[in-house]
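Can anyone check this?
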Amino acid sequence: MFMKQLILTLCCAAAINAAAQNIEPIAFGDMNRWVTRNIKESAVIGGKTKQVYEIAPTQTIEGAKAYKNLGGSPWATSNVYAKVMGVVKTSNAVFPVERVGKGKAARLTTCLEKCKVLGMFDIEVLVSGSIFLGQMNEPIANTSSPYSKFEMGIPYTKRPVALVLDYKVVDPGTGKLTYATTGSKKTYSGNDSSDVFIYLQRRWEDENGNIHAKRVGTGRQRFSGNSGWKNGHRIPIVYGDASKKAGYKSYMGLLNGNKAYYARNSKGKMVPIQEEGWDDENATPTHMILMCSAGSGTAYEGQVGMELWVDNIGLEF
């Protein structure tokens, strides 16, 4: 009896180790290393020095300087340095936080950023904290065409079966959504949810510099309601036409038109990535889009106080 129990225990341990070996961490996805940017805002809005955080090798950067991904980190955040009509302003909705006994995690929040200069502008903007694979283009000069402000996705040619992460949701449950951008703010009934997605694309560029894509793989899930930490959560990746597969939701659809994300073409110009259809199930991707966000609404819309905490992001094979 003892020998049978021992063999069973060893087999279980071997299975766990084998499963662990199938998880490929994304660089800096353990959220343990952060850049702190100390940026002094313009005197006309108070002149305070604000902290803006990025996911990259630990260091401190002083001053209002445009940030580019450092130390091989593939991660960008919705945290930005903006310069509007000569006025330096920061926005920070992604923070490093401590997990007891587990290092750091990223806390993504939905909040209102306010900026008022008498006689020049009076801006209140809703920001849903997000992290993504790609690059933010700073300094931000306005709130128009938000997707054009960041380069979405990185080169990638593998075919994982799932996105894996630890997550926690803080849902204020207010039942109110806020839309706020330059010159416009309104509040109405509704609920928001946090959002995590991975899209694998096969991209190509035409002779005019337009970027086209077909969707190779799709994985997306939305979360609402308060939860404690959920470790090792799997979001399966479906290959081929996801709209014909079990579990498909309308928000998993193709990204084109005004829903398209942007990338920099070979001419150095930011252009929309137009997804023109679903690719073959056996196609090899050229790029991966991955984003975690505190909110799931359109740009500048969300539930103030919504939070998504994430950690240990990797890919299962």
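Reply from J.R.: I decoded it. The helical segments are 2-21.
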